[in-house]
Design a protein that fits this description.
CATH superfamily: NADH Oxidase
Radius of gyration: 16 Å
Helix content: 25-40%
Bound molecules: flavin mononucleotide
CATH class: Alpha Beta
Oligomer: single chain
Amino acid sequence: MTDSRGSTSVALSKPRIGTGLSVEQALAQRRSVRTFADRSVSLADLSQLLWAAQGITGHFDKRTAPSAGALHQMSIAVVAADVDALPAGIYRYDPALHDLALLSEGDHRDELRSATDQQEAIGVSPVDLVIAGDARPLVDKYGDRGIRYLHMEAGHIAQNVYLQATALGLATASMGAFDDDAMSQAVRLPSPHRALYVMPIGYA
Ligand SMILES: Cc1cc2nc3c(=O)[nH]c(=O)nc-3n(C[C@H](O)[C@H](O)[C@H](O)COP(=O)(O)O)c2cc1C
């Protein structure tokens, strides 16, 4: 449906809490995995991953991942190619509404793979998450240290995704090797946002 943001949006499933592995089991089993089963990812599992990455869990925009000064300048782009009940396309996760806003229809994995210098996992993953952030509000508040904080926040989010993926039987890897400009273009990042991590996702 078209919403007040002027974009087509897709509602996500409510987060499930208390199912799956213990934190200790997920930590013990977590691994970077770059090959995936040949089957689509369920929208419920994608919803759960996005909630783990940046879901809102408290008052004043508090989220699953910590944020310096609670400024929360991170964003998650979703490059969906093979997700049940989700048309292929590039989406932006909206934590406040827990939904996906469509940015561009179609399978964009080739563009994404080119931006990562042809890393093989990218072309074969049913869905990819791109963790990005806008350093400016952090630099305004903390000076140059704000850049460091942005990178730390990306690490927190990526670890949440790793652990949630492990608990769901999904495989992923955090990838930092890509061309910044090509990645920004590939996932239609709004200009102050820069990509920090790409995480291909599929069942193990
Ligand atoms: C900052 C950072 C950048 C990384 N970039 C890539 C990458 O571009 N491609 C890739 O396949 N793996 C990448 N990795 C994953 C590492 O190769 C992986 O974490 C390492 O081999 C340890 O394996 P494990 O995660 O299974 O424990 C990156 C990891 C980190 C922390």
